[in-house]
Prior knowledge:
homodimer; globular; 13% strand; Aspartate Aminotransferase, domain 1; Aspartate Aminotransferase, domain 2; 7-stranded mixed β-sheet; alpha/beta; 3-stranded mixed β-sheet
Amino acid sequence: xxxxFVSDRAGRNIILVRSFHHLKQLLQRPLSATQSRFLxxxxxxxxxxxxxxxxxxxxxxxxxxxxxxxxxxxxxxxEIVTLAQTLQQELQSKPGSHPFDEILYCNxxxxxxxxxxxxxxxxxVLSLCDHPAILDRSETQGLFSADAVERAWQILDQxxxxxxxAYSHSQGIKGLRDTIAAGIEARDGFPADPxxxxxxxxxSPAVHAMMQLLIRSEKDGILCPIPQYPLYSASIAxxxxxxxxxxxxxxxxxxxxxxxxxxxxxxxxxxGVIVRALVVINPGNPTGQVLAEENQxxxxxxxxxxxxxxxxxxxxxxxxxxxxxxxxxxxKISRSLGYGEEDLSLVSFQSVSKGFYGECGKxxxxxxxxxxxxxxxxxxxxxxxxxxxxxxxxxxxxxxVMSPPKVGDESYESFSxxxxxxxxxxxxxxxxxxxxxxxxxxxxxxxxxxxxxxFPRIYLPQKAIKAAEAVDIAxxxxxxxxxxxxxxxxxxxxxxxxxxxxxxxxxxxxLPQEDKIPAIVSRLTDFHQGFMDEFRD
Amino acid sequence: xxxxFVSDRAGRNIILVRSFHHLKQLLQRPLSATQSRFLxxxxxxxxxxxxxxxxxxxxxxxxxxxxxxxxxxxxxxxEIVTLAQTLQQELQSKPGSHPFDEILYCNxxxxxxxxxxxxxxxxxVLSLCDHPAILDRSETQGLFSADAVERAWQILDQxxxxxxxAYSHSQGIKGLRDTIAAGIEARDGFPADPxxxxxxxxxSPAVHAMMQLLIRSEKDGILCPIPQYPLYSASIAxxxxxxxxxxxxxxxxxxxxxxxxxxxxxxxxxxGVIVRALVVINPGNPTGQVLAEENQxxxxxxxxxxxxxxxxxxxxxxxxxxxxxxxxxxxKISRSLGYGEEDLSLVSFQSVSKGFYGECGKxxxxxxxxxxxxxxxxxxxxxxxxxxxxxxxxxxxxxxVMSPPKVGDESYESFSxxxxxxxxxxxxxxxxxxxxxxxxxxxxxxxxxxxxxxFPRIYLPQKAIKAAEAVDIAxxxxxxxxxxxxxxxxxxxxxxxxxxxxxxxxxxxxLPQEDKIPAIVSRLTDFHQGFMDEFRD
Lengths: 537, 537
């Protein structure tokens, strides 16, 4: 930008712009420090006519759509996945056309797509709530567990008119919010208020809502971890804000240092960015680390001191695989420090898509909103009301997730067996893949303490980097594409999540079923060895 | 704006701005024609430092949230509904505390909240898909109809891995889109492409997506009917665009005249607004009219000529109550005029919340996107992918709605009886309420040819208008509040939808169950008579 600047007779800097639209475009990009200084004493000279903006409507094309949409990127379902879908179609129409017979989607935390079975009790209750007419029938006793029938009745009684097909209160059905608040209290040991709960279609719409609330222009910044789950970068781009990166330290197991937060905050301020909020993903996505309690206390103190909204992505709260780490919600940490509503604006995101249940397709979730003024809360409610309500099955499931069967319930034993079976298997899969990555030449991989991902670093040979540059793609995307074409394994290049410049990674889920892990490890190892043989410097 | 303008020695106009932020604020407002002319040869002079925007983060309050959120309004769940909820709580805690014993929510098209039963076949299929484990069990044969079991199997076979708990393709499950496309073809007699279908959590997120795509700034306008369903005004406000109103003609049964569209388009252009799209709601909300085919042809020609995207809200396509009118989709009209992909950009919105099924809580729906460039389509897909997918139960229900039981299926007769029963009853209720409104002194009400609403006009006495002004609320809101307090009936003031200035209306759904209509009519009539006795000029 600013290629056309001149000085006028008074010695002022002048930027020549082609049009009003052009001027606005210039102003919509983030400014470098030099550009900011230049602008601080600048005159903008628009010499051309504005009349062009009054001309007849342009057709819809990439030049005329919202540039924020263009800017938005979401690697988890990006080009690599499109390529995978093409390969899958080719495998179907021409079996044997590739050196593998199935595509293994390790790009996304979507457990049931890879064969994970749903939790029986949850599905029983959903099924009964979808068709309450069968609740009284004798056949139902044979098909469903007694506590599922009882829970379905309880839930139906919480819904006005037992109408599971009606729009609910825009925050979600009050009785279900009571259940969720009770679940949060049981988890944290601190009170939770059902009026703080906003039920949402998964966590993503909740994140969008907070970005929409907080971001006024590209001068508003949101501190986000790098690497980050690209929903955050996408949502910030769509809402026209600025992502202020802070780097997780790979050398200390993706450590989150408060000193790094302070440094990046100061850096953003010096560029004129007003930082509104801090995003923390715990357990980490794509990085899999689980924060230590002391570390969380430091983060809370930092947000309090700097008056930042703490956006706590806690959707992997049930996914912790190492005995030395425990999940603590940021609300628990904040309350245990003695901080209340006035001290910290905190939003905690939870989802039915993750945990041991992995009910991605149900699109259920909630945010717990604490520490906001009543009038701001009213605005959040208004935004929710424009979309009427989240889907009722997702609402019901969110309540089940926060209040599963208890000791003594008919389903308790089978529920616990399903839950423990899935979590133990995930831990084994995480370890097997971590070991496999660490056995590869020029690859190092931190432990997945939690969440559903590994994020190995690949030390790519210069020759591979040059080969990638020659075809104009990022070196890690080059690696991932080659991996997919050779093995059918879909992973996401680190560049989609952000990484320290000059380092290369990819994200791989730990979700393929256990009996497939040996084959994956062997295909991956063979591919990697061949890749290194081809490109080793 | 532009209070500080001067001329420099070269004779150029200069606008003095306080800060970079100030300059951007100026540029974010719509410009008058004079201002546009002025700007066409303007120099913008920023003399103050940019440092002020570097100050520490402000707390979150109404001054620091996104002003677009503040600007957004959604009357359907606005103040009157909050008051109704308070009254309902008072009735529960203190029975007899009000002159009525229940709140009748006529504010929102939410049929099942008022006792409408769901369609059995739809719920059977949803229930089975939620818990496929019971499909093979013998008890299931006794509980579910055979064709529901068969349909559930069909649907499960369309889902990769039969995983109803997995994220689907971001446009929705391909097999379900095939079913929907076939349903559209059967409805219209013209081809439909499953790749044009984007399944969504109800129609609202689809409308938001199109607004997000099309609106770049407040210079972009969207032509909307007045009165309109306030999702449109809310979404345009949230995305920072300009609502360009066109008025429906109450005198001709809420007629939509192309001459009015032309007039308002020209008017908008003269103000420097670039009109991107035309919203048409057919059947109308809140107005209930069903467009004549010839009228629709004129609208298509207008959009084609003016290169406007036609956003066709067709969620009430099953809700037509008069024999002389038939629903025609805009896609059918466009194709029957011989227009194809290159001629018209058209988006049709459909929802499972309306029709005879009224499954609002399921949050299912789709948009059919035709006439967009491949690269723009890719951007729409990318936006969908950021949110992963819509909820699978809603997706399944959308496919059922577009492909209900057919002659010969076990459920066909009971399904048809349920469907016809609901639609015939809605027609009777619409007529009864219309007659009741027209019998009131100073009230006139057009026929509800379709949709779920009546929008009577009330000729309020001057004395009532003054009384409303004295308490600083709109006269129609004053009337609706008095009605609620006296009768428990919740309707939405016309000012929430827009109306010709100086006219007053309210929107009342036709959804209370039939046995309640006589009591409603009598309470309404008594209230109105008392109101007129109090305020008659």
